[in-house]
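Lecture 7 notes: from sequence to structure.
We start with the chain below.
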Amino acid sequence: DKSRAGDEDSSFRAALKKMEYWYAHHGTTVVMMTVHPEGAPEGMLEYVLRGWPTFERFCAMLGKEGVHEYAWPSLIDVSLGDTSTCARVAPPTPEMMRAELASKVFTNQSDSDMVLALYTATAKGFMGGIEELDYQGLGWDAAQVGVVCAWLRRCGACKRLFLGNNPMGDA
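Predicted structure tokens for the same chain:
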């Protein structure tokens, strides 16, 4: 990739070795800005259309707690104003992530394969080793629960799954 050289490329490669910790670790708070602030440069690509923020967002969705009154919020979207606590969504499987990334824009298009590989390794490691999946009260419908169901056969260490208090319906 010719857009990164010297120290910038070295720093980028070093950061990639632990990138998932910044977003997926249950002990970190992830702060997002999903809507451009006033005065943002005209023509700036929206958050939901960009590749790296998609990776960051979905890694953060892997192990963060749900929203409740007794815990510090682990997902914050400063674009939401007074209600800055961000809703957690079901993390996509690697196959779902591949489809998601296909529609995203990267400054360096060569990053797309790297982002997919990073997400796949992070998601498989987390979901394959977790003993308890707690998705209670997240407001998930049948589609979100369906994403979790797509993961279940890969959750070899999982002993407990909590899905209560979600409006998923009978499906």
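Points to note: The two ends are 47 Å apart (CA to CA). The longest helix spans residues 111-129.
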